[in-house]
UniProtKB/TrEMBL annotation:
InterPro entries the UniProt entry points to: ARM-like (IPR011989), ARM-type_fold (IPR016024), Armadillo (IPR000225), KAP3 (IPR008658)
Gene Ontology CC entries for this record: axoneme; ciliary transition zone; kinesin II complex
Gene3D superfamilies per UniProt: Leucine-rich Repeat Variant
Protein name (Swiss-Prot/TrEMBL): Kinesin-associated protein 3
GO terms classed as biological process: cilium organization; microtubule-based movement
SMART domains assigned to the protein according to its UniProt record, in alphabetical order: ARM, KAP
One annotated GO molecular function: kinesin binding
Domain of life: Eukaryota
Record region (Disordered): 96-116
Species: Octactis speculum
Gly residues bias spans: 107-116
Lineage: Eukaryota, Sar, Stramenopiles, Ochrophyta, Dictyochophyceae
Length: 723
């Protein structure tokens, strides 16, 4: 009997379900037996979706599906996104075809167009054609004929028949082009017919052959003019009504109602035009043609006057699609549309607010637009949206982009954003912080004022305590980076003070040092965590510890030197870890009690530092920090003697004095000055190392003169060869 040796799952294609709101994931299961026989079987599973509409975030939804479906891998995410787009389009098509009539006709278009009260039939296409051919000033028959064809379009099965009737398509195109100004109802009906066709990519060539995209732009521009006129008319009537008699008010009220009806009908036509154009813009070449017709300016103008939330969502969605290209974002900036977008963030309609936040996120990739957003007072609005779970994800992304600017970091410190972000960080349910939340917390903590607020949230030192406790539980390197930035704040305070007695946070880190060291020891396998912990420790001085707690005690309790030495193994150490260890050793040397431990032969730390000097002689950053650490260690007798007489570190310092980098030469020269001063017997002659320093300085000071002598001697020698 064969025994199963191995089972393997291979992800397959991902397709939208035909009957429900779900994706079908195909996968192959391979079973290998001990006799090398392999059985392959095809399987599928259905992933049902709770909702999918025009405001859905496709990339985030796809990532969530991949994470939660065991038959999908990260490499399949793009296929999941493609399937979701298809499903979204189909879902919107069905919603439009089934609910569109009620949605629009009851929402401001007035009474239903003539003919919609009857039942349309494909067998009566010729009758509808005759209605549309009707001449005369009365457009009733044309409205009725187009309405009946629109009713047929509600059934997807009729679309192919309608498109196949060249007489109807040609007549619709002519009416759309020549008579759209004569009847808003007829124009709206024809637009909805074309909208039904535009939901299918296969129909786009048919629409292109009748120039429907260009005509839709013309109609949008025409309706924009009509909308502006109606707005002025309603404003005038309101002004007159405020000053007129009761009879005037009654007359004005009727005129205003009529103007409002025209205004609402125009908005519905604009909605249908926008919907059709966004469908046609699936083809990038078509989209570029639209942009040449000043599409962005047209969309912006309609956004300024729109009162319908459905229309606003559609216009913003279109603008969001366009904003993925840099040249379009530049045009948006030139047209000064950003204030309009920022104002819509405070919209009462959640769908509008969510869509405009996604648009702003796209625009926030542009450095100039980012600062323009801040000038438009977007920060207080984002603080409010951050409180709503529905908007939180996209708001965090926008704030992260804005916080890359140092000016914005400081502004955030004067808003309610910092307490909110701290609450989200400390109460985050997952093991590791979400990327957007963690990155935002890191960015703002670079600002000294914000770092202080985070440390003392909600009361003195409580925020830092909660952060350290969470890192201790989770070993999250991003959160450790926040703590490191807070340590930068306390370190900068000490640098600015002339008298250490004035340091207001003396001993603040003492209660946390044991926990931080435990995180470092336990998380030694996580390179990112190790770098951040070491970076935090590098910023702590003896003033940050309790009066009774010294670095030497920590070194003995946690065997720090052995731990640090293992991180400096030549040819195996990580470069960033090495850099942090070197800086940390320099920080430890600020405490005199650590010097004998560092100098002890059992620690081998100086031996490993010598190896690092050789390995990183061509790395300016590491070499500079090594020299800085050596300078500190040379100030103490125990470590100085170990460096001078127990290692070859001096050779590396001598070589560094010839570096092309000014900072490295200066640090090397400072080290050599200490060596020159101390390498001698008491009241006796200079030692060998001090003499080497003198020779080096002499040769460097007189380099030009010595080079000239050498060239002269070589010239004289060469001349004698030919005499």
């Amino acid at each position: 009997m064969s025994v199963v040796v191995k089972k393997k799952i291979k992800p397959g294609k991902v397709e939208p379900d035909d009957s429900e709101l779900a994706l079908i994931v195909f996968y192959d299961k391979e079973v290998t037996y001990d006799d090398d026989r392999v059985d392959r079987t095809r399987h599928s599973t259905r992933v049902r979706l709770k909702a999918l509409d025009i405001s859905s975030d496709i990339p985030s939804m796809a990532a969530s599906i991949v994470n939660n479906c065991k038959y999908l891998t990260a490499s399949r995410q793009k296929y999941v996104e493609q399937a979701l787009v298809k499903l979204q389009r189909r879902n919107l098509q069905q919603a439009q075809l089934s609910d569109e009539r009620e949605k629009y006709d009851q929402g401001g278009m007035g009474e239903a167009p003539g003919g919609m009260d009857g039942e349309a039939s494909v067998d009566k296409l010729d009758e509808y054609l005759e209605m549309m051919y009707e001449t005369g000033p009365d457009m009733t028959e044309k409205v009725r004929g187009t309405a009946m064809i629109l009713q047929l379009c509600f059934n997807v099965g009729n679309l192919e028949v309608i498109v196949g009737n060249q007489a109807i398509m040609s007549l619709l195109g002519r009416l759309f082009k020549d008579e759209f100004r004569k009847s808003m109802e007829m124009c709206y009906n024809i637009m909805r017919i074309y909208l039904s066709l535009s939901n299918f990519l296969e129909m786009h060539p048919v629409l292109a052959s009748h120039n429907i995209g260009r005509l839709s732009l013309i109609i949008m521009d025409y309706e924009n003019t009509r909308i502006q006129h109606q707005l002025k008319e309603m404003k005038r009537l309101d002004s007159e009504a405020a000053q007129g008699s009761d009879a005037d008010i009654s007359a004005n009220s009727r005129q205003r109602a009529k103007a409002k009806l025209v205004f609402d009908r125009s908005q519905k036509i604009v909605y249908a035009c926008s919907y059709l154009l966004i469908n046609l813009a699936e083809d990038i070449a078509v989209e570029r043609k639209m942009l040449k017709k000043k599409l962005i300016a047209l969309l912006g103008s309609h956004m300024n006057s729109a009162t319908s939330s459905n229309l606003l969502v559609m216009l913003i969605a279109f603008m969001k699609k366009l904003s993925t290209f840099e040249e379009n974002t530049k045009q948006i900036a030139e047209l000064e549309l950003l204030p309009t977008f920022v104002n819509l963030v405070s919209c009462d309609d959640d769908n509008v607010a969510l869509m405009v936040l996604r648009l702003i996120y796209n625009l926030s990739f542009d450095p100039k637009l980012k600062y323009e957003m801040v000038k438009c007072s977007i920060l207080p609005k984002l603080v409010r949206t951050l409180q709503a779970p529905k908007f939180r994800g996209i708001t965090l992304k926008i704030l992260y982009h804005l916080s890359m600017d140092d000016r914005v970091k400081s502004m955030i410190g004067y808003t309610e954003a910092t307490p909110l972000i701290m609450q989200l960080v400390l109460k985050f349910p997952g093991q590791m912080l979400a990327k957007e939340l963690g990155a935002l917390a890191v960015n703002i903590s670079f600002n000294m004022r914000v770092a202080e607020m985070m440390c003392h949230f909600p009361k003195t030192n409580r925020g830092l305590y909660e952060l350290v406790e969470r890192v201790r539980r989770t070993h999250d390197p991003i959160l450790m980076k926040v703590i490191r930035n807070i340590s930068e704040w306390t370190y900068s305070l000490q640098e600015e003070m002339t008298d250490p007695k004035n340091y207001p946070h003396r001993g603040m880190w003492g209660r946390f040092i044991d926990k931080i060291l435990e995180v470092m020891i336990e998380g030694k396998g996580d390179r990112d965590l190790l770098v951040e912990v070491l970076g935090c420790l590098c910023n702590l001085t003896p003033l940050d510890l309790h009066r009774g707690k010294k670095w030497s005690r920590c070194m003995e309790e946690y065997d720090l030197l052995s731990f640090l030495s293992r991180l400096l193994v030549p040819h195996m150490a990580d470069r960033d870890v090495v850099l942090m260890v070197v800086i940390y050793v320099g920080a430890l040397s600020l405490d005199e009690t650590t010097v004998p431990i560092i100098a002890s032969s059992s620690s081998k730390l100086i031996y490993y530092l010598q190896g690092i000097t050789n390995d990183y002689s061509q790395d300016p950053e590491v070499l500079l920090q090594l020299l800085f650490t050596f300078k500190r260690l040379l100030c103490y007798k125990d470590t100085r003697e170990e460096i001078l007489y127990g290692s070859n570190i001096v050779d590396g310092i001598l070589a560094s004095s010839r570096s092309k980098h000014t900072e490295i030469r200066n640090e090397a020269d400072a080290c050599l000055s200490i060596i020159h001063e101390h390498d001698r017997e008491l009241n006796g002659p200079q030692g060998e190392l001090a003499q080497q320093v003198c020779k080096l300085r002499y040769s460097m000071y007189n380099r030009e003169w010595l080079d000239e002598i050498q060239r002269s001697e070589q010239g004289a020698f060469t001349g004698s060869m030919y005499e």
